[in-house]
Amino acid sequence: MELSTDSYLSIAGESRGLYREKASKFIAVALPVSTEEEVRTGLEELRKAYHDANHHCYAYRLGMDNQLYRSNDDGEPSGSAGKPIYGQILSTGLSDVLVVVIRYFGGTKLGIPGLIHAYKTAAREALDQAEVVEKVIRVQFRVIFEYRMMNEIMRILKEDGIKIVNQSSTVHCEVDFLVRKSLATKLQIRFSRLNNVQIISI
Questions:
Q1: Could you tell me if residue 183 is inside a domain?
Q2: Does pLDDT of 103 surpass 90?
Q3: Could you tell me if 155 and 197 lie in one domain?
Q4: Looking at the domain assignment, is residue 127 inside a domain?
Q5: Does residue 6 contact residue 136 with C-beta atoms inside 8 Å?
Q6: 152-167 burial, b if ≥16 CB within 10 A, otherwise e?
Q7: CB–CB of 180/138 below 8 Å?
Q8: Range of the domain at 161
Q9: How many CB atoms are located within 10 Å of the residue 38 CB?
């Protein structure tokens, strides 16, 4: 999928994977998330659902620039669980995604190489089952204008496929809207060329 400068790939909904090794069971769950609060909520729900599991290891990555990411081994040997899970997120190029791998210990130790393979394989299975979608970065603006400009303002907004989120008319008219980040500068210039029209970022 060819991406624009203001878009990135994520997943549409929950997907799952399963890996078994020497009676240990690794259940992987991939969830779409957009904030750290959603990450916490997703983790809490899975810990409740699989409260009898031995480990709930995870990794997540948020945002177009992937500025927020974390991995956690949840009691497994350092680097044997969270990092392999995060590595699979990186290899798929996905963001705004949380992958949790839930382990039920089967009684036989797998060793660090075995754990790395198990967590990596389970995570990959869940991500391979996911529906990949393109997410677009949008920015919000408010345009303020006189009522007589209404038709012209609305024509511009409709031309560029912009999503209007709020509209009000008092002394002046105000329209709040969302626009693709890559189109924002062009739109600001168009509005700035109109008389008695003000556009502000909100």
A1: yes
A2: yes
A3: yes
A4: yes
A5: yes
A6: ebeebbeeeebeeeee
A7: yes
A8: 137-201
A9: 16
